[in-house]
Amino acid sequence: MKENARQVRRRGPGARLLSWIVHVSTVHPWKTIGVFLVVTMLFAVPASQLKTDTSIESLVETSDPAVAEYMRIEEEFGEQAMVTVVVDTKDSSPAVAEAYVQALAEDLRECGLFKDIRYSQDLSFAGDRAVLYIPEEALMYLLTPNLTSEEAEAFLGGIVDQMNEPVYYASEDGRLYLVNMVINVSIESIEVRDEIFVTLDDVIKEAKGTNATFKDLEVGVTGSMMVLDYEGDQMALGDLMATFLLTFVLIIVLLFVSFRSLSLPLLTLVPLLVGIVITA
Questions:
Q1: Is the same domain home to 117 and 242?
Q2: In terms of domains, do 92 and 179 share one?
């Protein structure tokens, strides 16, 4: 230790200052924590006056022709604002999924953040012309010899009634059910975007809690907006982790180069870790 001290004295004032900081931090850890708290509070006062602009317009140049064209296409087609809830019946049944999507659609309408909520085909617009949407093979029964008018009317009435029943958006094997919707608000800031995600997640969970049979359903969300947001969060998380590890390694290397030993750099981790804990 004395040899290390002599080496530090030979390194100059910078090394002596760092050595003194390490010595004080290790000998008086609680005083060090107190100093960090005071410094943090002093910086917190001016930091509280700072304002962050989270509007989407501040992140992109809306005057850019490419951005303007993208916004025009998004507004015209609305695909980027579409959200799809996927219900998996792997551990449940189609009947339970159908009841769930109906309950979910009602809750989504009440929250007001979404519009054009659809989970089934609707032929009510056809009115008396619904017979035009009957499959051709179904009409072949009308060619049965000696078919009475009463039998034909009953047959057509049954088909129309069947067509008026909701035909859910589902996969061919009947395992996946879909609920499509369009975002009903303008996403002008990060806060609005987060509110949409949080509200949608809450509505999905609340709808599952309304019936004990819904608990076995697996429910997820997809859509261009959701995928882009998830990928963005994953990329940001990866960048933060990489930055943290790189910074930590560079600090260790810098301390090692400064002290020419391993003991003092390891000791300097004490105030560094204290600072991380305080600012976390």
A1: no
A2: yes
Q: Is residue 211 in a domain? A: yes
pLDDT of 86: 93
- Pick the residue with more confidence: 56 or 258? 258
Residue 110 lies in a domain: yes
Sign of CA dihedral 43, 44, 45, 49: positive
Calpha distance 200→182 (Å, rounded): 12
Residue 214: DSSP 8-state: G
CA torsion sign for 214, 220, 221, 222 is negative
Task: Count how many domains the chain has.
Answer: 2
How many angstroms separate the CA atoms of 34 and 41, rounded?
11
Strands 176-183 and 82-88, sheet pairing: antiparallel
**Mean pLDDT, range 43-71, rounded to an integer:** 66
Q: What is the largest CA-CA distance in the chain?
A: 116
Q: Is 0.70 surpassed by the pTM of this model?
A: no
Examine the pLDDT at 146 and tell me if it is beyond 80.
Answer: yes
Give the domain range for residue 187. Answer: 56-122+166-221
User: At 23, is the secondary structure helix, strand, or coil?
Assistant: helix
Does a structural domain hold residue 32? no
- 207, 214 contact by CB (below 8 A): yes
Q: How far apart are CA 50 and CA 46, in angstroms?
A: 7
Q: Percentage of the chain with pLDDT > 70?
A: 60
**Same-domain status, 79 and 189:** yes
